[in-house]
Specification:
alpha/beta, 6-stranded mixed β-sheet, 15 helices
Length: 330
């Protein structure tokens, strides 16, 4: 999730946005611009300039951050910080120690090791930082709950999970769905019925439906759901991801210490407490050997759909058959 250090950005600050989740990074940039625009002395707002790190040189940087002839309040958004030329690093670090009062500089780093040295130097300079990290699969319902509340609506975790199942893991798609539901809910809490009304057709062919049927040992329904999902454009990697997530949760549940309280067990497994009932039902008929065989089949299918095999559809069908037949295996 996006995490912020220190206070809200203002003119005279340097804000560092790091992480590979582009939706959250873009939101952090928009929020920073909105914050300084709200406080701007000029009725025209602030002047925003965006530039890629690889295109920056000393002259351009000095022009964008130096004193303005027109006393304009400005925001400089420097994207792809990891591509910043080496000769520009000292100038950027120097600026972070002596900023312009009428400029907010937002530095966006896409994640990874490239450009890590400049990140370390900026952090030592105590710049504010927003970390844009994608939530884990099991954290997506909480993301939905937070998004709905941010928009002024309400939703419980079961309905939030239903929305994730229907829409998938893409944060932009989830945020768009949340906005649509809140807009059309008339101020009432978002229910599973409303989600089904808007996204039910998609929910029936999601990767989660394939995984649930296969884990339950229902081979034919699982294959039928798989064909529908692929026909509707569901990406192969989402199917393997859903299957892997389902089996991982099941493995954690079956190997958890006995005697734990419900809240402790949910924390141990990494799921909301209400989902323990589903895992308890799914665990029936599964053995350690069967789970091991199923997880191995999913790992092979994941490699196949990412390039090890030329036929992703066949790889997924083989995975579904293997997983469903592993149910009850000793």
């Amino acid at each position: 999730m996006a995490a912020r250090k220190n206070s809200a950005p203002k003119l005279g600050d340097v804000l560092l946005v790091t992480g590979s989740e582009t939706f959250l990074a873009d939101r952090a940039v928009r929020s920073a611009i909105a914050a300084v625009s709200k406080e701007a002395a000029s009725s025209d707002g602030v002047e925003v300039t965006e530039i890629n790190g690889g295109d920056l040189d000393v002259g351009v940087f000095a022009e964008l951050t130096g004193p303005s002839l027109f006393a304009a309040e400005r925001v400089l958004v420097l994207r792809l910080l990891e591509n910043l030329p080496a000769e520009m690093v000292p100038h950027l670090i120097d600026y972070a120690g002596a900023t312009s009062d009428d400029v907010l500089v937002v530095l966006v780093h896409s994640g990874g090791q490239k450009g890590k040295a400049v990140l370390d130097k900026l952090r030592k300079a105590s710049v504010n930082e927003v970390v844009a990290t994608a939530p884990k699969t099991w954290e997506l319902p909480q993301f939905v709950v937070g998004e709905i509340r941010l928009l002024g609506g309400g939703i419980d975790e079961r309905a939030a999970t239903a929305l994730v199942d229907a829409v998938g893991h893409d944060l932009r798609a989830l945020a768009g769905a949340c906005s649509q539901l809140v807009s059309d809910s008339g101020g009432k809490p978002i229910t599973q019925e409303l989600i089904s009304q808007y996204f039910g057709g998609r929910a029936e062919v999601t990767s989660f439906a394939v995984a649930d049927a296969a884990i339950a040992g229902r081979t034919e329904p699982a294959l039928e759901q798989l064909r529908w999902a692929l026909d509707c454009g569901v990406a192969a990697v989402l199917v393997t991801s859903a299957m892997a997530g389902g089996l991982r949760g099941l493995a954690k549940y079956t190997s958890a210490p006995s005697g734990l309280r419900e809240a402790d067990l949910a924390r141990e497994v990494g799921v909301p407490p209400w989902k323990l009932k589903t895992l308890k039902q799914q665990a029936r008929g599964w053995t350690a050997g069967g789970l091991a065989a199923a997880i191995k089949a999913v790992a092979q299918a994941d490699a196949d759909v990412k390039g090890a095999s030329g036929d992703a559809g066949y790889a997924l069908e083989r995975m579904v058959i293997t997983v469903s037949r592993a149910h009850g295996r000793r």
